Structure formats: C-alpha cells, structure tokens
Structure prediction request, 341 residues.
Amino acid sequence: MSFPTTLESTAQALLASGKGLLAADESFPTIEKRFKVFDISSTEENRRGYREMLFTTPGLSEFISGVILFDETIRQKIGGASIPEALARQGIIPGIKVDQGTMALPGFADEKITQGLDGLRERLIEYRELGARFTKWRAVITIGGHIPSRTCIEANANALALFAALSQEAGLVPIVEPEVLMNGEHPIACCEEVTTVTLKSVFGALVEHRVVLEQILLKTGMILSGAECPQQADVAVMAETTRRCLRRAVPAAVPGIVFLSGGQSDEVATQRLNAICRAGDVPWKLSFSFGRALQAPALKIWKGSRENVMAAQAALHHRAQCNSSAIQGKYSAMMERATLV
Prediction:
C-alpha cells in the first residue's frame, strides 16, 4: 500500500473514520513485567512472536489505522518481510516511539523528565528509512502533594516541542503525549486543573518551536478522579469534564486527539471513550491510542503458545471493534456479551 505523502494527509489517515491506534511500543522492562504474569520468558523470539500474533490479526485494519512500534520491533521480520512492510501491506501505517524513557528530574522529588533528545535527528532519519511514518514521545506528569511543579511541566513541554519539531523536519507526523498519571487520591477537579495547565504549556512550547499544529496529533488522558480517590466521578461527569478541558486548552488547528488508556481496564476504557465521543461538539477528530486496554485479553489467551494464536487474535479483533464503535458513539455493553468470531 502507498501511504499519503504529506504530513497533513498522514495525520488525517491516522484519524480515518472508525479507526484508532494500537500502541505496541512497550519497553523491555514493561513487556517483561506483562509476560511474567503468564510465565512467558521475555526473549527476543517471544517478543517477536507476540507482536506477530497482534499484527497479523485478520481484519485488524478495519479498526486500526496505525501501530506504534518499539525500536526492536521495527527491525524485526514477519514471514520474510519487515514488520513495517507487513503492516503497510494491510493498510496500517507504521509508527515508532522515539523517547528513551524517564529519569528523575534533578532537584524535584518525585518528578520526572523524559530522555531521548540526544541523537534524535539521526535516529529519525533511520526510522523513516525503516518505514515509520509517524512518531511518539511520552512525558509523565504526576499529581500529589505539592506537585507537579511548573518547572517539571515546562521542562517536559519543551522536550515535547523539540521532539515534534525534529519529527516534522524528518517528514514524520509527531504524536505529542503529555500523560497526567491516574495515580493518587486527587479529585477529578484537580486532574482537570493540572491537565489544562500542562496542555497550555505544551502548546505554548510547540508554537515557540514553530511546530505546525496541523501536522501533529495529541495523545492525552481522560480527565479522571485519582485511582485512589474515595469519590469517583461518574462517566457523564468524566466525559463533560474531559471535553471542557480540551476545549479550553487545545487549539482547533490540531486535527485530532487520541486518548490513552493509562492503566484503565479494557472495558472501562471503552465505556469512557464512548461517553466522550458520543456528545461531539468539539473541533477535532477523537480516537484512541490504546496499549494494554487493547492487548490485555489477547495476551491472557495467547500465553506464549502458537496453539492459542487464533483465539488471541479474535480477542484483539473484538476489542478493536468495540473501540471503533466507541469513537463513533455507538458502543454498548451488549457488544461485550457478543460471541467472539
């Protein structure tokens, strides 16, 4: 398949109606942790086999427009073809996570800064040659006590802006991901306040670095009560608060917003996504970029065994279909009781 040639058209292709992104960019420690639950050894071959199971799911391109890969994965092969080539043949756009994880922000306890700017220009050129057409960089903002500090927010915003500018220079669509973590006892109003401040800082930095907003996607979290908060906001309040926050902080020039699942269970993430998208009244296309919330049922079935591939793929296809319905505001709990085929 030949992909769109401009950054604007690539961004729009990633936002194709009824489609979202599969985030399969887990770092070595993260995938090892997930494999360990099912007593799967995190070897290169097992990681490749797992991604092959995901990426060769029949009919996946009906609901998935793009896949975010990891550095190891973009270099691996499926059936003699590179993974980017295998995805492209199905009409799925390959992308790549380019940050190199977080480190402690010096002088600011419990806060983090994302690494990976050193040598990024050269790595982006290589990734494009390997078949990537978009990139992703994740910043982490934690709520708690007297954090986040403005220093942490602004440092991460500037790193995101540099990443985005370098990506566009290399002919790649950047997905800018400032994630405000769910962890904590804070009420939903606190999450809304922190996310609003964070997004405004990020877009201020993007403009300062001359990033073309029409050529990016925003990946962000839903506005939620902290996971340990005793009073959890209901779905309707969550949806309206999320839309309000985004309307106040995200320029209309941005073509689309893809939501991360951020540790939510698969069905809960889909229910909340549906509630946000059902109301409309926003200037951007809304979609999903889920990792664990798409993969968890498939991994639970697969367990490292070739005999389980078809059943695991059916589970992934089902979750992708549910989330496709959600971004169209058409999801219902009845879909979860449907027989997987």
The chain has twelve helices and twelve strands. The longest strand covers residues 134-141. The mean pLDDT is 96.
